[in-house]
Design a protein that fits this description.
alpha+beta; Rieske Iron-sulfur Protein; 2 domains; 4-stranded antiparallel sheet; 20 strands
Amino acid sequence: MRSEQNERVTRIGPGTPCGQLLRHYWQPVALLDEFDPALDPRMALRPVKAVRLLGQNLVLFKNAAGEFGLLDRDCPHRGADLAFGRNEGDGLRCPFHGWKFDVKGQCLETPAEPAGSTLCKRIQQRHYPLQERSGILFAWLGPQGSSPPPLPALDCMSAPSTHTFAFKGLWNCNWLQAFEVGIDPAHASFLHRFFNDASLEDSYGKQFRGASAGEINGEKWPMTRVMREFDQPDISHQEMPYGMRLTTLRPLTEELTHVRITNAVFPQTFVIPLSETMTITQMHVPVDDTHNYWYAIFTSFDLPVNKETMRNQRLQAVTLPDYVPISGQHNQWGFNPQEQISRTFLGMGEDDINVHDQWACESMGAVQDRTREHLGTTDKVIMANRRILIQAMDAVAAGQLPPGMAQTEIASTRVGPDTVDGIAPAASWQTWSEAAMQAKREQAPWPALLAPKAAA
């Protein structure tokens, strides 16, 4: 990739080609958990957060009625920082001169002005539409006055709150190199290689620790064993209205093959299986050019999720209130050379494979220099995604809508997208996969509840 191309696909501030593209899609701005006083005691006193999204400084606050507002952070009077504003229940008041704004950005008061002044009626701070789904607040940063598409009708957005759990974490690198790890099926055999398999009884909520669907000679195989022993995958992809469907085959015997179907939802989301009955939908959201938050939604097709267990598992790896990882370049991501020799291929822990991905992304540099890379056959999905990304930026520059969930018809169409991770008959893995995905959907207690809603 040429240097100018690399700049074009990574820079996301206002007015940049990639930034203009990403502003055609709903973006996560915060977890609802971030306003939970049990996790952040400050929120009991003052539910206000300074946030940065797509290179913009914003303030997110909740009023006394429980409504959220997302505003530009510089006060329209003299530019002071509204993140230090007084939350007075009905609005956020700038401490500089007392100007006050509601959740829609309308100025309510300009108290220092002469009696009878109507100045406040003419002052409108830029605000951004918000929607809450599955424990995440999504923001629309498109052109002012534009109509956003609906939130994508994905499984993770459609399932009831009892069957979803959301979490996030900060990475110190550009969004694209982080997203590209998620659509790279080959890396799991190396980066996430464990030399020993943990008990399947203690795999709930843990990535790569559960068993693949199906059996070999009557035995359940954990995902770790499949990845370790079969590290030359056959990768293919199929273009879909929402992005791409990825299929990764690992032949096990003449009769059996391991099949893993995942999805790339353009431009920054991937959907992967966590277990036979749970998926992970992960979005990589630019804070600015050199930082991104991953937001993950775990969706259960079986029992309600155990939010407390899943939250506690992940809180061990971050510091609140900003979900900053405990591991990072400052402590070599927890690297242990003895562990690298005896327990894991990477040497950075067995409990949280997000650290593995974090190292891979952050060690490339704040913005990966793609002019120095040498891509191989297993990078075909990476190359395909980059082509789509460049074409989408060209479409936006030409005044057209980009592909996928930026288009109302596609965003409003019910789609999983479905995933599978299992051991299938080699001669009929396609039929087996479709049946496995259909069975997962049919056994879930909640999709049937969506049918009457969709008909209405």
